[in-house]
Amino acid sequence: MLPRLVPVTDIKRKATDIIAALQRDQEPLVITEHGREAAVLMDVVSYRMQERKLALLEGIIRGQQAMAEGRTLSHEEVLLRTAKWA
Predict the structure, then answer these.
(1) What is the pLDDT of residue 36?
(2) Relative to the CA of 44, which of 59, 68, 81, 86 has its CA 20 to 30 Å away?
(3) Contact, 31 vs 41, CB < 8 A?
(4) Same domain, yes or no: 37 and 53
């Protein structure tokens, strides 16, 4: 699905209606200026979900890098290290 394009002048004139549509539809809008893409506007719920997904992906990448660099522990080593927390 292609993002909806909204001219910046519409944002200025119809901000309340546009925000209501964002919250209802939870689909980001691409704001255009002089006919070119300039920014993206999205509802807060979708933004926070996207941030959580990004944090998860970054954690996976860090884990892959650790594995590639040999910075891993065996199951037994993890149990020994975490036993002191119990």
Answers:
(1) 96
(2) 59
(3) yes
(4) no
Q: Residues 62, 74: one domain?
A: yes
What is the CA 42 to chain-centroid distance, rounded?
A: 11
**Helices and strands (H and E) in the chain: how many:** 4, 3
* pTM score: 0.74
pLDDT digits (tens, 9 = 90+) for 54-66: 999 999 999 999 9
Q: Would strands 36-41 and 29-33 be described as parallel, antiparallel, or unpaired?
A: antiparallel
Cα separation of 11 and 4, whole Å?
Answer: 13
User: Is there a contact between 6 and 33 (Cβ–Cβ < 8 Å)?
Assistant: no
Domain that holds residue 32: 1-42
| 3-state DSSP helix/strand/coil % of the chain, to nearest 5 | 60, 15, 25
Q: What is the pLDDT of residues 68-78, one digit of tens each?
A: 999 999 999 99
> How many structural domains is the chain composed of?
2
Closest to 27 in 3D by CA, of 64, 10, 2: 2
